[in-house]
């Protein structure tokens, strides 16, 4: 009996030590995470809790590197923030961000960078939602999206360390100044300085996965719902939504591949809801201009400047049409 009591006490003590250790280190990591003042973690925290810009841009790395907030802000005379996130994120991340920020305020304009193929399931889509784990505790509206990561996510989130597992190195590195220098951003926009060598074309793998889709592509209901819900939120909150597919590099003599069937599903949703949609993916202005690209799927700083001016012009004209037709919803392409 004494041996059983001793064994039980040891087990209880072990569990207590593990629990206390988890709580203590979890609190330290949380403090370090939310004390960052630059980088992607800071940008996401800022968007969810503080940003009150008139215009916000959402999407993956193509959003982050293609839309120069300074140019758009100056042209429209509105404040603008680029909330794009590197890392090949699906449309679920912008949906989570939009769902959260519209609980506290409504931007005047939302720009969503979106591939029409962005409703297809890609390997790693749900794993990448780990970027939202630090916000599970304080943002109940996005918890259902975080739980899409897996059936045991709710149990894992009982741990205080778990939300920061995937980012521990960056968190500690940032705060101890041992990490690489943070790239300078301009209201969220991060310019790329590389120049594409058209003879050695490459693109980031996660972007290629969305540009080149096989015949076995599977439409993900959660992605479709995210697109529809973003449109619904913007309509409910009286936010003007622009969905834009930004440029991809094409050679001057390159034949453009026909649209994939799955693209029609996205475009039908967009057009049936009369959303402003602009497709620049094969825009002739950018054809044959490798000097404007960092790789096949990303504009560099020079290309982003050209593109941002074009976007500013379109936004200005479309907003002007809205003001002249207050009772009509205008859909342009």
Low-confidence runs of at least 5 consecutive residues: 177-181, 326-333
Main β sheet profile: 5 strands, parallel
Radius of gyration: 22 Å
Shape: elongated
| Run of helices and strands | HHEHHEHEHHHHHEHEEEH
Helical amount: 40-55%
What does this structure look like?
Helix 4 runs parallel beside helix 12 and helix 5 runs parallel beside helix 10. The longest helix has 32 residues. By secondary structure, the protein is of the alpha/beta class. Strands 2-1-3-4-5 form a 5-stranded parallel beta sheet, sandwiched between helices. It is built from 12 helices and 7 strands. Strand 4, helix 11 and strand 5 form a beta-alpha-beta unit. The chain is elongated. The C terminus is likely disordered.
What does the secondary structure layout of this molecule look like, with pairings?
Layout: H1 2-33, H2 39-49, E1 55-58, H3 61-66, H4 69-76, E2 80-82, H5 92-101, E3 109-113, H6 143-146, H7 153-156, H8 168-176, H9 205-211, H10 221-236, E4 240-245, H11 261-272, E5 276-279, E6 293-295, E7 298-299, H12 301-324
Helix pairs in contact: 4-12, 5-10
Brief overview, please?
43% of the residues lie in helices and 8% in strands. It is built from twelve helices and seven strands. 35% of the residues are buried.
